[in-house]
Specification:
By secondary structure, the protein is mostly helical. 79% of the residues lie in helices and 0% in strands. Its EC number is 4.2.1.134.
Length: 221
């Protein structure tokens, strides 16, 4: 029974990783194609649907960690996925005013390259039991460049959206109401920006430690 469940787990995770890989490959293809043909102003329109699908699918990774399908700690997975979903839905989808900015192109290209490498790496590991050494190196080295470009784009787009968030009052809840509750999306977004300050260096150091551990282990093997 245990071996049967192990097979089911591997088949499911293999399919999950390669399906999401295909989604991010679409995002990269449409982003680069549009950037080349019509410029950065139209990148968001070209990638919107596959970006939303691929990024929202990452919610399943939180569940994977919670139920023990993968060993990744939820404490590391949750803030990464949470910030991505906030950008995807709370900023890019909600505020068309920032959709034509050049930072959208740098954001989706940074994200898509990162995820293409990551999902194909785990796709190989689940399907074959291993990944090529060059793929291991890419998995634990590409973030050295792509994480700073991605984070810079994220922070820049959130900052650019702030005036539109304030004037639109979108997602705000005003009192009085039956729940006796108020919420201001503008101030919540400022709080998110404030979390980026200590959060980004912490996550970068965490990934550096992961890189050192993974590459050291591969050398011993």
């Amino acid at each position: 029974m245990a071996s049967f469940l192990s097979i089911i787990r591997r088949v499911y995770l293999t399919l999950y990783n390669w399906i999401v890989f295909a989604g991010w490959a679409q995002v990269l293809y449409f982003a680069v194609k549009t950037l080349k043909e019509t410029g950065h102003e139209n990148v968001y329109d070209a990638v919107e649907k596959p970006l939303q699908l691929a990024q929202t699918a990452a919610v399943l990774e939180i569940l994977h960690g919670l139920v023990g399908l993968v060993r990744s700690p939820v404490s590391a997975t949750l803030p990464q996925i949470g910030s991505r979903l906030f950008l995807t839905w709370g900023i890019l989808y909600s505020f068309p005013e920032v959709q034509s900015h050049f930072l959208v192109a740098s954001l989706v290209i940074s994200w898509s390259i990162t995820e293409i490498i990551r999902y194909s790496f785990f796709g190989f590991k689940e399907a074959l039991g291993f990944a090529p050494s060059w793929h291991l190196w890419l998995r634990y080295s590409s973030f050295l460049v792509l994480y700073p470009t991605g984070i810079t784009s994220e922070v820049g787009l959130v900052y650019l959206a702030l005036p539109h968030i304030k004037t639109s009052e979108m997602y705000g809840v005003r009192m009085p109401n039956t729940l006796n509750f108020s919420f201001d999306f503008f101030y919540a977004t400022i709080l998110v920006l404030a979390i980026y300050v200590p959060g980004s260096p912490h996550m970068y150091r965490y990934m550096l430690c992961q890189r050192k551990r993974a590459l050291s282990k591969s050398k011993r093997e």
